[in-house]
Amino acid sequence: MAERSDEVKLLGMWASPFSRRIEIALTLKGVPFEFSEQDITNKSPLLLLSNPVHKKIPVLLHNGKPISESLVILEYIDDTWQNNPILPQDPYERATARFWAKFVDEQIYVSAMKVVGKIGEERDAVVEATRDLLKSLEKELVGKDFLGGKSLGFVDIVATLVAFWLMRTEEIVGVKVVPVEMFPEIHRWVKNLLELGVIKKCYPSRR
Ligand SMILES: N[C@@H](CCC(=O)N[C@@H](CS)C(=O)NCC(=O)O)C(=O)O
Questions:
Q1: Phi, psi at residue 83, to the nearest 5°?
Q2: Is the CB of 49 under 6 A from ligand 1?
Q3: Distances (CA, A) of 157 to 101, 107, 190
């Protein structure tokens, strides 16, 4: 748990799946934190000072020290507050978790972002490409409650981007990227996520 002297502040954004990852991890660990909603169209001096390289949220400020990039922040949180571990202990399993986290961010997210920006046949092609990537995640879920196994882990937290951001974005853009007939395991996993108190707290709306 957090020490009395710990000052934890999250520069984030309500709608950002990257920022939500950090909220989930801190909530899971029981670390009290201050959430500072940022406007990325008018970046605050604190954000620019804290993340001068990428100028992006989320940024975690721990006793004034900034940490950027959500995957890096998640590992920092896990190293700093060791209760309710997020990453597995075994080196091979840790490497595998990092592999899937990279896959979600570098492949699935990048492909899904293109769905938002395209129309017509071009969009059909990127929807197909995104589904191809999602098939790997679908396979990973067979026989498991969570991507982390029996309980929520690093990859689940990272992949909430698929469960909530992508599966809500598809409603907004009006294209079903993750249909239940094609991805029953992913839909089962989303149901499991929604039963967790930490998810209910961090993703309170709608689903
Ligand atoms: N790789 C970053 C991605 C973070 C990211 O894309 N943040 C967006 C908001 S969702 C942002 O701050 N965008 C501002 C910009 O691009 O200038 C992470 O994992 O933290």
A1: -70, 160
A2: no
A3: 9, 16, 12
Is it the case that residue 3 has pLDDT exceeding 60? no
Q: Which atom of ligand 1 is nearest to the CA of 69?
A: 20
Domain CATH code at residue 163: 1.20.1050.10
User: Which pLDDT score, from 0 to 100, does residue 168 have?
Assistant: 84
Pocket perturbation via mutation, ligand 1, pick of 16, 18, 36 by most ligand atoms within 8 A of CB: 18
For the Cβ of 21 lying below 6 angstroms from any atom of ligand 1, the answer is: no
Q: Give the structural domain span for 74.
A: 8-80
What is the bridge-based pairing of β-strands 34-37 and 8-12? parallel
- Out of 3-12, 64-73, 85-94, 152-161, least confident range: 3-12
Burial category of 111 from C-beta neighbours within 10 Å (exposed 0-12, middle 13-18, buried 19 and up): buried
Q: Quick check: CB of 38 below 6 Å from ligand 1?
A: no
Same domain as 188, residue 135: yes
Interval 132-165: pLDDT, tens: 999 999 999 999 999 999 999 999 999 999 999 9
118 in a domain, yes or no? Answer: yes
Is the bond preceding 58 in cis, omega lying within 30 degrees of 0?
yes
**Mean per-residue pLDDT of the chain:** 94
More confident residue, 132 or 167: 132
Task: Name the closest-CA residue to atom 2, ligand 1.
Answer: 69
Measuring CA to CA, which residue among 150, 172, 163, 184 is closest to residue 104?
163
Same domain? For 163 and 191 the reply is yes
